[in-house]
Specification:
Radius of gyration: 17 Å
Distance between the termini: 24 Å
Strand content: 15-25%
Low-confidence stretches: none
Largest sheet: 8 strands, mixed
């Protein structure tokens, strides 16, 4: 079984859209959003995947979500059938933290292969969890988003050195850092130096859930990112659809 987020109670968050972030920005994709996360970012825009009633981990909105309305368990074969019914052959598995369900994801991709070629498979991860050995050979791209100090997560949880070193050595991994202020870039710079990240695989993305905030931050980020030789990414889905589920 897979534990998924929902768009509305009882309806899993499985949908076709354009990839809004990172190296695949603008590509038609099928998205599967899983529930549960081992971190708790203050600014997380999918807190409905983890901050359920009784979870007191801090979040800037202070909202708590009903688990029954926002979480759904489905068999891997059912999830595969829903993916196969949608058009794009690029699959993006997001969360929450998808790699917490690595063994079930491997079964999902095996079930999907029976129905149609899985196509290009991306997993979006916070980088703290190693890929399951049955899943790893089935993945084409990892979008790794280590959480900086402004996320509110302790560094020992969010930035485990052994995992960052492993991702740095993984040719399928791209790094995506969420940045709110220029000071955050100093932390990215130090992590990139310490772990020898390839500059062309480092993406800087403004934090924000409103187009005006994203645009303002992109303007001051652009010259700073250019000077470092990194790459800049927008959040296309926010401009197109707003901060909404299933987009």
């Amino acid at each position: 079984m897979l534990t998924l987020a929902t768009t509305v109670p009882g309806e899993p968050e499985i949908f076709a859209s354009l990839q809004g972030e990172g190296p695949s920005l603008g590509r038609p994709s099928v998205f599967v959003r899983l529930s549960r996360c081992n971190l708790a970012c203050h600014w997380c825009d999918t807190a409905y995947t983890w901050r359920f009633t009784g979870d007191n981990r801090p979040h800037r909105d202070g909202l708590a979500f009903d688990r029954g309305d926002n979480q759904l368990a489905l068999a891997e074969a059912e999830v595969a059938a829903r993916i196969a019914a949608l058009g794009p052959d690029r699959l993006v598995i997001t969360g929450g933290e998808p790699l917490l369900q690595g063994a079930a994801l491997a079964r999902l991709l095996d079930a999907l292969a029976v129905l149609r070629p899985a196509g290009h498979v991306e997993i979006e991860t916070n980088g703290t969890v190693a890929p399951h050995p049955a899943l790893d050979p089935l993945v084409h791209q990892y979008n790794v988003s280590p959480k900086l100090a402004h996320s509110g997560n302790p560094a020992e949880l969010a930035l485990p050195a052994e995992r960052l070193a492993a991702w740095a050595a993984e040719p399928r991994a791209f790094f995506k850092f969420v940045v709110a202020t220029p000071d955050d870039l100093a932390e990215v710079r130090e992590l990139a130096r310490r772990h020898a990240f390839v500059s062309d695989r480092v993406f800087i993305m403004p934090e924000g859930t409103r187009p005006a905030i994203l645009t303002e931050r992109l303007r001051w980020l652009a010259p700073l990112v250019l000077a470092e030789g990194w790459r800049l990414t927008d959040r296309l889905h926010i401009h197109l659809y707003g901060d909404t589920r299933g987009t």
